[in-house]
Structure formats: structure tokens, C-alpha cells
């Protein structure tokens, strides 16, 4: 499959990633190596799927294109917490992805919460069958809510993973982000599959 | 080459060289500046592109990266641009329409290098200081060469135009300098050919050329005035020369006539001296030879009186006595005349010291009868010793002292003799208290045979003439200081070099 440069291919997988995704789980190592300068250690066989490996990387990368207001952190050098509410589809993969990572001086940590648990989070992943806690969707919550499927945005979420032509993409609801007091980078918007006002 | 062409040449050469150098400088500077500018420009451009691809790399979206790269098509000199992943794998690529360039391998740091007509920029794509990949951009340097060509064409056009304009301008402007110089050269040639220093150069401007013209004119007027002065001086000199020649001619004539006069004078002088000598010799011989017949007359008249005193009548005896006294007077006259002539005669005898004191003593002895008779008192101060002949000085003093006694007044004579030194002379005086001499006769008394008292007092009339002759022979003068009845003071001088000893008495 020859790359066709100069044509619009927003809704298509990049050839490199597509190939990776078609390959067995161990290929994720390659994907990680492609995306990051420091190689991700081999993911154990217990990893749920290649799809969530990619999503784990995306979760981390979101933190680099989102501006949190200083009020979002209890102290200036507090860690940036990625909370996983309810079921955890990532397993060890996400821990390995965020290991040693930091954004703007905030160390990135992963917290797994029960669905009803209340905690200070900057990013909240709410998997399938989960609902967004009211505290996270409240105006000025400064929580980047990430979920699955088109419905998530209707619930008031900000970013929703979608599978498009076997590629992991995401949609963004801009008003929800603004409502939450977050500023999304134009670059992030440019790579989103669709941006809802 | 005339100065007009030289000036045009200078102007053109200066313009040409300046333009060529300026053109080269501009092109070279622009080349360097543009390279620097291009470097900065591409650095900024790649930074923007790299930044725009961070999200695409983060979320694995090559389409977005390609879109970001596609914006480069506005920069026509970008040949190709590629985004590489960290692994070195090509992520996205842009190629200029019609170009088939491959992307060079990515470099680790930011690098810009020139390579065979292209500029290759390699820039890491960073996000939060983490490297996501590398952007490589190939920029063709045609732009630079286009610019150089454009500049070159501009410079050549400007060069040709300005050369043309410079030619026109310098053709016009050269007259500013050339015309005064040519005028000056023309005037110089005219002056040197015609030697007319009245010509003046025309002044065109107040600059250095004007100053030159002024100086030249000034020089000409200087030469002119000097020329005139020279001519006048020459004329004056010629006139003066003529005068001098005339004066010399007249002088020569005068000299010739004077020489002739001199010769005549010498001749007449010689004649005179000869006749004078002849005369003196004649007088000497006459007075000497006349004595013999005179003595005969005297002897025979005495014999007549002695032998025939009783025979002759008293009347005849008286006549004979008259004859005798007459012959006696004649004898005295002849003796004086002889003495006068002797003084003038040449004497071969050498000069000897003559003590004037002894001379005076001898004279007093000679005149002792007259002195006794008259009761004269003679006082003599010490007199010098003179080199000369005793036979000359004895008559001198004897005449003067004799006169002093002879021409005495009522009182017995008082005669004073003395010598004083006056300047270079010895002055000797013989003064008396006699009858004196009236001033009108002061010079006449020294002439022979000029007697004042013809009959009253006997005398030959030669005495003072002898005195004058002696004094003048020794180079002195004799005069008298006197008035009638006031006594006389006869003074004569002798040159001091005749003095042998100041005072003869003391030797």
C-alpha cells in the first residue's frame, strides 16, 4: 500500500499504525517505539488488546495538548492524575506508558477508582457502561473526561474514542471542554476525527 | 593627449571603476546577506512546520502531517519536505509539483547545510522537550542565483546608463577646468612668442584655477615692470656711460694740457734755474773780481793823500777823500754781495754741529766796538746746537744783532736772544727796543737793496736778505713782529730735526 501524500486522509489509518494494528500484540512494542523516544517495555501477554495499548498512549498524549488552569492542581507541583473509573480495560499497559512521564512539571500518575469514588483527577477515563460523575462534568471541574463511543459526548464528555476504519481516532466536544475550564490545543483539534461545538 | 580628453578619461575611468567595485560589492554583500537571511527564514519556517506536526505524530495521523507539509507549496523553492519518525521511518512527505527528489537522511540536531545548489535543513520535532521525529527540508538555491542574476543585470544596466550620463556630464563639466587652463596655455604661448608682457589671461572662476590665473597675471605684471625698469636702467646707464666718456675725454684733454703745461713749466723752471745760477755765478765772479780794481783805486787814492798832502790844494784833498770813502762803501757792498752769493752757492762741505751759543759769543766779539759805543745790553738764553755750517749762522746773527744796535732809539739798546720749541720747529728770536718797523714794510725789508733809512744810517741793504737766505736754506722762515717806535722782534724758525743737542752750553 503506497502512501498517497497530499490527499486528505483524515479518516483513514496511517499506514504505519494500520500495519501495526494488524500484527500480533507484540507489535505494540514497535508502535510505541515509533511514537516515543524511549522504548516501551514488552507488554505482558495478559494485556487485554492492542486497541487499549494505543488508547493508553493517546490518554497520555492528550495531557500534552490540553491546558489546565493552575486552580486544577492543589499545589503547583502536584502530579497530573489520570483516573480510570470503573472497569479497567488497560491493565498494566497504561502504567508502563506513563512511567517516568511528566507534563509542565507535573508527574503523571494513574489512579483507578470505583465508579462512585470521588477523587481529584485531571483526566478521567470512563469506560463502557460508566457514567460521568456530576463533579467531573460540572462547570469549572477542570477534568478532561475521556470515554468511548458517540454517546459519551452526548452525556457531557469531552473526548470520545472511536474506531474508524480499524484505526483508533477520537471526537471532541469543544463546549464541554470550555465548560470544564480547559483549553484544548488547536493541534489536538486538527487531529480529531470530528470536533463538535 | 589634450587636457579635454584627459579630463573626460579621468571622469569615465573613475565612474567605471567605482561602479564596477560598487556592483561587485553589492552583489557579494547581497549574496552573503541573503544566505544569512535564508538561513534564518528557513529556520523559522521549519520550526513552524515541525510544531504543526507534533499532534499528527502524537496521535499517529500522517494525513495531518502531510497537510501541514502541503502548506509549503506556497514557497516555490522548497523542493521537498519530509517528516521522519524517531526510528528514521518516513512519516509524511511533500514534494514540489514536478520534482522527484528523495529526502536526505534525517540528522540528529538542527542542521542547515548548503549542498550542490540546495539548502538542506534538518530539524528535530520536539514536544515538551521530547523528540517526536525529524523534519527534513530541501530548499533549492535557484533563488539566490536568480537574485544574483537580477542584481548583475541591474548593475550592468546602471553601469551602462551611468557611464553614458557620466560621459555627457564630464563632456559638459570638463570645460569648467579645461577652458581656463587652455586659455592660460594660449596666453603663455602668446607671451613667450611675442615677449609682450602687457597681455593678461582671462579669469573664469574664483577657484584654484582663478588663483592660478591671478598669480600668472601678477607674475606678468611683475615681469613687465621689471622689464621696464631694466630698460630704463639700461638707458640711464647708457646716458651715464656717454657722460663718463665725455668727461673722460675732457679729462684726458685736461691731463694732456696739464702735462704739456708741466713740461713747459719744467722747461721754464730749468731755464729759470739755469739763468739764476748763471746770474749768481756772475754776481759772485763780478763781486770777487771787482775787489781787485777797487783795491787799486783805494791804494792809489791813499798814496795821493799821503805823498801829495802838501802839494794838492785843500779842495783836491777833499775830493780825494770822497773817492776813498766811496771806494770803501763799494768794498763793503761787494763783500756783502759776495757773502749773499756764497750762501746760495752749492757747498760740498758736510754739515757739522754748530753751537749757536758760540756763534753769538763770536758775533759779540766782532761787534764789541759798536756794543761798547752804544752801551747795548745783550741777554742770551741758552741756544741749541744745529747741524749746518758755521759760515752761514755767523752772518745771520751778526746782521740781526748789528741791526738791533744800528737802529736803536734814544735809549741804549736792550737786546734779548732766546730759543723756544714750537711744534716741529725751533723758534729763535732777537728782540730789541729800537725804532721799530712800520707794518707795511715788514716784508719789504727782507728784499735786497731795499733800504728804509737810505742816508741817515749807513748800510749795504743786503743784511736781511742774507738772513732770509740762510733761514730758507735750512727750511725755516723769518719774519718781524714790530711797529714804529715799539722796538722789533725778529723771529726765525729752523726744523727741529736740525737740532743736534738742545742746549750747546751744557756740552
Short structural summary:
Chain A has 197 residues and is of the alpha/beta class. Chain A has helices spanning 15-22, 28-35, 50-62, 92-98, 134-137, 150-154, 174-180, 186-191, and strands spanning 66-67, 80-85, 102-103, 106-113, 123-126, 144-148, 159-164, 167-173, 183-184, 194-196.
- Provide the spatial order of strands within the biggest beta sheet of chain B: 2-1-5-4-3
Largest interchain contact: A-B, 31 and 31 residues
User: What is the H/E order of chain A?
Assistant: HHHEEHEEEHEHEEHEHE
User: Could you tell me the radius of gyration of chain A in angstroms?
Assistant: 16 Å
Helicity of chain A, as a percent range:
25-40%
Measured by DSSP, the beta-strand proportion of chain B falls in 15-25%
Q: Given the C-alpha coordinates, what overall shape of chain A results?
A: globular
Helix content of chain B: 55-70%
Describe this structure in words.
The complex is a heterodimer of chains A (197) and B (507). Chain A is built from eight helices and ten strands. Chain A is an alpha/beta fold. In chain A, the strands form two sheets. Chain A has an eight-stranded mixed β-sheet. In chain A, strand 5, helix 5 (134-137) and strand 6 form a beta-alpha-beta unit. In chain A, helix 3 runs parallel beside helix 4 (92-98). Chain A is globular. The model of chain A is unreliable at 1-47 (pLDDT under 50). With 507 residues, chain B is α+β, with helices and mostly antiparallel strands. Chain B is built from ten helices and 13 strands. Chain B has helices spanning 3-52, 54-58, 62-70, 142-194, 208-307, 314-344, 356-366, 368-374, 390-406, 463-473, and strands at residues 78-85, 90-95, 111-115, 118-127, 130-140, 352-355, 377-380, 385-388, 414-422, 425-431, 478-482, 488-495, 499-501. In chain B, the strands form three sheets. Chain B has a five-stranded antiparallel β-sheet with strand order 2-1-5-4-3. In chain B, helix 1 (3-52) packs antiparallel against helix 4 (142-194) and helix 5 runs antiparallel to helix 6. The two termini of chain B are 112 Å apart. The model of chain B has no long low-confidence stretch (mean pLDDT 85). The interface between A and B is medium-sized, with 31 and 31 residues.
Amino acid at each position: 500500500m503506497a502512501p498517497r501524500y497530499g490527499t486528505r486522509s483524515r479518516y483513514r489509518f496511517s499506514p504505519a499504525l494500520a500495519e501495526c494494528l494488524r500484527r500480533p500484540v507484540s507489535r505494540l512494542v514497535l508502535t510505541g517505539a515509533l511514537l516515543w523516544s524511549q522504548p516501551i517495555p514488552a507488554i505482558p501477554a495478559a494485556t487485554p488488546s492492542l486497541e487499549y495499548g494505543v488508547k493508553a498512549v493517546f490518554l497520555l498524549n492528550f495531557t500534552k495538548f490540553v491546558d489546565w488552569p493552575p486552580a486544577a492542581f492543589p499545589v503547583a507541583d502536584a502530579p497530573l492524575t489520570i483516573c480510570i473509573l470503573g472497569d479497567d480495560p488497560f491493565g498494566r499497559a497504561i502504567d508502563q506508558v506513563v512511567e517516568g512521564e511528566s507534563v509542565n512539571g507535573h508527574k503523571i500518575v494513574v489512579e483507578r477508582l470505583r465508579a462512585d469514588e470521588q477523587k481529584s483527577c485531571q483526566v478521567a477515563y470512563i469506560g463502557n457502561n460508566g457514567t460521568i460523575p456530576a463533579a467531573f462534568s460540572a462547570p469549572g471541574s477542570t477534568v478532561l473526561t475521556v470515554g468511548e463511543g458517540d454517546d459519551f459526548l452526548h452525556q457531557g464528555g469531552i473526548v470520545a474514542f472511536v474506531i474508524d476504519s480499524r484505526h483508533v481516532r477520537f471526537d471532541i466536544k469543544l463546549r464541554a471542554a470550555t465548560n470544564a475550564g480547559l483549553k484544548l490545543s488547536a493541534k489536538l483539534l486538527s487531529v480529531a476525527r470530528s470536533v463538535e461545538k | 593627449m589634450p587636457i579635454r580628453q584627459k579630463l573626460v578619461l579621468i571622469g569615465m575611468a573613475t565612474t567605471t571603476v567605482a561602479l564596477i567595485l560598487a556592483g561587485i560589492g553589492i552583489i557579494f554583500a547581497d549574496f552573503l546577506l541573503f544566505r544569512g537571511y535564508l538561513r534564518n527564514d528557513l529556520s523559522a519556517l521549519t520550526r513552524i512546520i515541525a510544531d504543526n506536526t507534533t499532534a499528527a505524530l502524537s496521535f499517529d495521523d500522517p494525513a495531518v502531517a502531510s497537510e501541514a507539509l502541503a502548506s509549503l507549496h506556497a514557497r516555490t523553492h522548497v523542493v521537498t519536505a519530509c517528516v521522519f519518525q524517531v526510528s528514521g521511518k518516513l512519516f509524511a512527505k511533500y514534494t514540489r509539483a514536478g520534482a522527484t527528489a528523495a529526502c536526505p537522511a534525517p540528522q540528529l540536531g538542527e542542521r542547515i547545510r548548503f549542498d550542490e545548489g540546495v539548502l538542506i535543513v534538518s530539524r528535530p520535532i520536539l514536544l515538551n522537550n521530547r523528540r517526536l521525529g525529524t523534519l527534513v527540508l530541501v530548499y533549492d538555491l535557484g533563488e539566490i542565483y536568480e537574485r544574483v542574476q537580477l542584481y548583475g543585470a541591474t548593475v550592468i544596466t546602471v553601469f551602462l546608463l551611468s557611464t553614458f550620463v557620466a560621459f555627457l556630464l564630464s563632456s559638459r563639466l570638463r570645460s569648467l577646468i579645461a577652458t581656463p587652463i587652455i586659455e592660460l596655455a594660449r596666453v603663455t604661448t602668446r607671451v613667450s612668442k611675442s615677449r609682450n608682457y602687457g597681455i593678461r589671461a582671462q579669469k573664469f572662476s574664483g577657484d584654484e584655477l582663478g588663483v592660478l590665473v591671478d598669480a600668472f597675471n601678477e607674475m606678468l605684471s611683475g615681469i613687465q615692470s621689471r622689464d621696464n625698469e631694466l630698460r630704463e636702467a639700461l638707458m640711464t646707464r647708457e646716458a651715464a656711460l656717454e657722460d663718463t666718456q665725455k668727461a673722460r675725454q675732457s679729462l684726458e684733454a685736461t691731463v694732456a694740457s696739464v702735462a704739456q703745461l708741466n713740461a713747459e713749466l719744467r722747461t721754464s723752471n730749468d731755464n729759470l734755474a739755469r739763468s739764476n745760477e748763471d746770474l749768481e755765478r756772475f754776481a759772485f765772479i763780478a763781486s770777487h773780481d771787482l775787489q781787485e780794481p777797487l783795491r787799486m783805486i783805494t791804494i792809489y787814492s791813499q798814496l795821493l793823500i799821503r805823498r801829495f798832502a802838501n802839494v794838492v790844494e785843500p779842495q783836491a784833498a777833499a775830493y780825494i777823500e770822497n773817492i776813498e770813502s766811496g771806494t770803501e762803501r763799494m768794498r763793503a757792498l761787494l763783500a756783502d754781495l759776495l757773502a749773499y752769493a756764497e750762501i746760495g752757492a752749492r757747498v760740498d762741505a758736510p754739515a757739522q754741529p754748530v753751537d749757536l751759543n758760540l756763534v753769538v759769543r763770536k758775533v759779540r766779539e766782532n761787534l764789541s766796538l759798536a756794543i761798547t759805543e752804544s752801551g747795548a745790553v745783550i741777554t742770551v738764553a741758552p741756544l741749541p746746537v744745529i747741524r749746518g755750517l758755521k759760515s752761514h749762522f755767523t752772518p745771520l746773527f751778526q746782521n740781526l744783532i748789528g741791526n738791533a744796535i744800528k737802529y736803536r732809539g734814544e735809549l741804549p739798546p736792550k737786546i734779548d736772544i732766546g730759543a723756544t720749541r714750537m711744534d716741529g720747529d725751533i723758534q729763535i728770536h732777537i728782540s730789541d727796543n729800537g725804532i721799530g718797523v712800520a707794518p707795511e714794510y715788514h716784508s719789504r725789508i727782507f728784499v735786497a737793496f731795499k733800504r728804509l733809512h737810505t742816508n741817515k744810517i749807513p748800510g749795504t741793504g743786503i743784511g736781511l736778505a742774507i738772513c732770509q737766505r740762510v733761514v730758507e736754506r735750512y727750511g725755516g722762515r723769518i719774519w718781524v713782529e714790530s711797529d714804529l717806535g715799539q722796538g722789533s722782534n725778529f723771529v726765525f724758525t729752523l726744523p727741529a730735526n736740525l737740532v743736534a743737542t738742545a742746549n750747546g752750553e751744557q756740552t
